[in-house]
Amino acid sequence: MIEREYNFNPFPLFRGCHEQTIFGSMLNFHPEPKSRSLYVPFDDGDTMVLKVSTPEGWKRGDPIVMLVHGLAGSDRSVYLIRMTRKLMKRGIKTVRVNLRGCGSGKDLARYMFPHFSDKDLRRAARVLKKASPESSLQLVGFSLGGNYALKAAGKSSRSGEKLFDQVIAVSPPVFVETSSHLLAKPENRIYLRYFSKLLRSEAKNRMKFSKHIKAESIPEGLTMYEFDDFFTAPHLGLSSASEYYARSSSKNYLGLAKMPVKILFSLDDPIIDSHALDDLKLPDHIEVHKAKKGGHMGFLGTPWSAQGFRWMDHLLLKWLTNK
């Protein structure tokens, strides 16, 4: 494993981790790009929806990038919209992946953020590769989507499939249970309230598929672990939140990846353990990059610098285009 540390210089008004996290997710000046919906059915009857944006002049064999949102996100997440527009300007077809039950696929799936989301990403990749087998295909996941991207990297290599030319993860909870406990800290209650509100709403939408849990029976004020123990795990047929987290986590699969992998952490991330991979011996084609500041997927820099206000975007574009 190659580890690099960045002395990232945050925007003067957003130096703290919470300011970086909150304002990084709010500031968006990019309209949603033109796209078409691509439906990917699964054998169990569920369907995933991909939003495909193709730049003018793109042809079969030209590069493709898949982008995967985080917890309670969708194809409309601001970081996916922003990156899609920037990639399209560089002639790259960009696919915003809705995990099961999210975004455009909200009513097309029984499950919500299942532990086998990495399998779904591989299924989506096969569909894209079949349509354009000569194209390079890169996978970028953010937060929980980054965890599933890393798990897909390991599992696709283990099976011998050559689906991805590169996999990138930003702020991934590689051991998911740790993040559930970090969200329970008093200083992180703003994030817990945000996720709890969205997840309760999504859970109610899943109730029509559930035989055992009714919407009105979900208690108020649950921690993330308690919510996953009460609803998510049994809804997925698992025994507990701990089993759900163990099955979801990419940490034990990452070392299997054969393609180049790049991971970006912030050392002051309030809800992700940036040291979760420190105890692993990983091959040198897996790179772990750490910035001293940045919060959770914030990385708001100085507009007058070479990297600009969106330092994260600049780094991702460099990794994706080798420029």
Q: Average pLDDT across residues?
A: 92
The proportion of residues forming helix, as a percent range, comes to 25-40%
Name of the top-level CATH class = Alpha Beta
**Whole-number radius of gyration?**
19 Å
Side-by-side strand order of the widest sheet: 1-9-8-7-6-4-5-3-2
Distance between the termini: 23 Å
Helices, by number, come to 9
The CATH topology = Rossmann fold
Which architecture name does CATH use?
3-Layer(aba) Sandwich
Structural class: alpha/beta
Largest sheet: 9 strands, mixed
- According to DSSP, the number of beta strands is 9
Task: Tell me the CATH superfamily.
Answer: Alpha/Beta hydrolase fold, catalytic domain
Number of domains: 1
Order of helices and strands: EHEEEHEHEHEHHHHEEH
Estimate what percentage of residues fall within beta strands.
15-25%
The residue ranges in which pLDDT falls below 50 over 5 or more consecutive positions are: none
What's the shape? globular
SSE order and pairing:
Layout: E1 2-6, H1 17-26, E2 36-41, E3 47-53, E4 64-68, H2 78-88, E5 93-97, H3 117-131, E6 137-142, H4 144-159, E7 166-170, H5 176-182, H6 189-206, H7 224-235, H8 241-248, E8 261-266, E9 286-291, H9 311-321
Parallel strand pairs: 1-9, 4-5, 4-6, 6-7, 7-8, 8-9
Antiparallel strand pairs: 2-3, 3-5
Helix pairs in contact: 3-4, 6-7, 7-8
